Fold this protein.
Amino acid sequence: MIRVLMPLPVLLPLLGAAVALLVGGRHPRVQRTLSILVLGTVLAVSIALLLLADADGAESLSIGGWPVPLGIVLVVDRLSALMLVVASTVALGVLVFAVGQGAADGDEETPISIFHPTFLVLIAGVANAFLAGDLFNLYVGFEILLTASYVLLTLGGSAPRIRAGITYIVVSLLSSLLFLAAIALVYAATGTVNMAQLAGRLSELPEGTQLLLQSMLLIAFSIKAAVFPLSAWLPDSYPTAPAPVTAVFAGLLTKVGVYAIIRTQTLLFPGGALDTVLMVAALATMLIGILGAVAQTDIRRILSFTLVSHIGYMVFGIALSSAAGLAGAVFYVVHHIAIQTTLFLVAGLIERQGGSTGVDRLGGLAKASPFLAVLFFVPAMNIAGIPPLSGFIGKLGLLEAGIADGGWLPIVVVAAGAVTSLLTLVAISRVWSRAFWRPPAQSPAADTDEAAARDAGPELVAAPLEELASDDGSGSTATRVRRRAAWRRHTAVATASTPAMDGLGDGAESARPLRPLPQVMIGSTTVMVAVTVALTALAGPLYAIAGRAAVDLLDRGPYVNAVIDEEDAP
């Protein structure tokens, strides 16, 4: 049964994308319905694969019946099946959100004839990466999802999106080139790229060769996972895309890189030669990322830097190389995929409601839209690690694993993890206090204007310009005019766009009415928030599955035996 289901998470989205492309713009309703049905089916198949893999262990499928290592091999174990479930869940939620946005906006942000086929191809690439049993098929999965992401990132063709897309493409091509070079060297050294066979053959190579291959793969995957110092591309690339695109990117794409690190470090290089390097990278990723988040004033950029920061928790769990550390890392990956996707969807609703994602241009959203405030508050507290939510459970598991390790460096990273969690709460609380809690009458533009006036000089705050035209004989007229002009230039730049809270204040400038939030967008986001709450309710069973997956990763035997004969296993 499991072998019948195994190729479907890849095959169904590819076939659905082909059909969606054929119907094109002639039958948009058919295209929307088809896409949702395909991802709904993929979710059902993924749940079945998880239940079967958890009950019966790992299983493999050689496509076309070709023997290993000639054919393409798909492998399902607890880790890959769990990743498939959470990936298809968030993909379905994002797709429904995009359908609602397209219906409300006339598909200006997500052109339907392009978006749906490309989105399905993206999900096929993600599924292929999770199921890949050899390095080259993993590379193909990356290239499928990256090619689709290039299109999605530049939807709308605006200058900021094209500029961000170019940066994203250059960085992605660089990591792909390094990955491909590593695959070539691995094949030259071992005669295979099948990961089950590599588990036995790589250990026979000289230590220097092993370290070179491990380093090349780790760097390539770290770029894709946005591990510091290879993460600078992410905060400038993700916030420019449409809300559903940003959400699926933030939730899934970096986690595919994390998955690849977990798989290769445990299966191919179990000796822990680079664990110290990973530990230091985790420490730097946590702190640099969260300091960047605290310094931002745009919600999407805050979330992007927070995304980078929390990748550090996952890398920390991998670097510990223990069952507890890997279990915490796997659980935190599942948690973070759902939370980040949900928060970026909420950010899209905030932008639609308030007209901006800049916290200095927002205010009074809690009063204007209480339900939107709830949708933001729940996942925000979750990512900050407030008990008893899943974010707290995942962080607690990782920190306990670090303390149990006993080394000085893990203890330092544990302390950094606690600081990172507190600073995450600071960044999220600032969004809440300014965008939601601040009274709408407290206009950011007015605040900026008054501040500029005070900077220009107290005597200029109430002085009309006519008063500045007359010279009082003191010789200060020219100075005062220059200061007044500087103040006006300052306020013109600072208040160049209409305040986001227009329509909520009491003044004459409050002319723009609030835009109603489409029910489909609200509904899909509500479901995603419910999913994040469900992670807390089901934390026990999920952590147990993550623990069993961690044991299998360290053992390596279940994976290898599922692909090749037991006598050839390492």
